[in-house]
Amino acid sequence: MNKHCGYIALVGAPNAGKSTLLNALLRRKISIVSNKPQTTRTRLLGIVMREQKQMIFLDTPGCSAKAKNLVQASWDACEDADIICYLVDLTRGWRKDDTLFLEKLKETHQKKLFVLGTKSDKLKKMPLSKMFQEFQAHFSELNLQQATLEKISAKKPEDLTFFLDTLAQYVPESEWYYEPDQQTDSSETFICSEFIREQLFRQLGEELPYQLSVLIEHFEKTDKIVKIHAIIKVVRESQKSIIIGRGGTRLKAIGQMARESLENYFNQKVFLKIFVKKGEV
Ligand SMILES: Nc1nc2c(ncn2[C@@H]2O[C@H](COP(=O)(O)OP(=O)(O)O)[C@@H](O)[C@H]2O)c(=O)[nH]1
Ligand SMILES: [Mg+2]
User: Fold this and answer.
1) Residue 113 phi/psi, 5° resolution?
2) Are 126 and 167 in contact (CB under 8 A)?
3) Ligand 1 pocket, 23 CB below 6 A?
4) pTM check: above 0.85
5) Which of 87, 203, 249, 281 could make an SS bond with 213 (beta carbons 3.0 to 4.6 A apart)?
6) pLDDT tens across 203-226, in order?
7) Ligand 1: does its nearest atom lie under 6 Å from the Cβ of 17?
């Protein structure tokens, strides 16, 4: 078989399940996930090889009509992609924004489109088929060209295999853009800061400071261990104490969970030290 290679954009509302799907397809976590919208800040790339076919997935921040820059990130990804996947959460139902986005997509692109109803595992049989029927109605009404509607769960390996097989049929013939064993173009230090950010999202809840950044000050990889020093930067002293928590308990928990994700990622022992500092973010 000749070599094939193509870009596949994952777009959809915040929380639709884009990052979870990407991680599941890669069978490795590279994109951070939380139940809060806007966890994914920048575009992230994940590469899956299937025989001679290289599929390059673009994970995007959610296209919420409220945040213009996020919508732009979704359009940019669609522009670059050979195939577009638009995700809609089956447990939340179809929204007006979904119709609006897909209508605009129809005007601008004639690319192969998959509309994916996500998180199908979360619904029981009857509510699932009822919701999927609703999706089918919206989908037919849009009268999209070259489009397929599917339901999918990131938790069901058979769904993932089926989806990858289906996608593979639409990947164009081309040289590979990345090495066949490469899974992402993100740097290791970027992944480190993302995994720490993920824990901040998960563990701070409503208290999460709007302005915050994570810097990797030191990164060292040996045969035995990965050593990481990170700084969480916040604007106010009060935010610093929120993150550190009483007696340092919260920072300890953040560090512990982030370290576990990192050990999975590097498949190695990780030593992680996190400092919280007040300063410019
Ligand atoms: N049960 C279940 N939960 C999912 C699935 N996909 C995503 N989620 C959950 O939905 C939330 C949002 O997922 P995320 O991937 O961050 O959405 P994104 O904002 O579109 O990237 C997280 O709490 C995920 O654990 C799925 O297939 N099944
Ligand atoms: Mg995401």
Assistant:
1) -125, 135
2) no
3) no
4) yes
5) 281
6) 988 788 878 999 999 999 999 999
7) yes
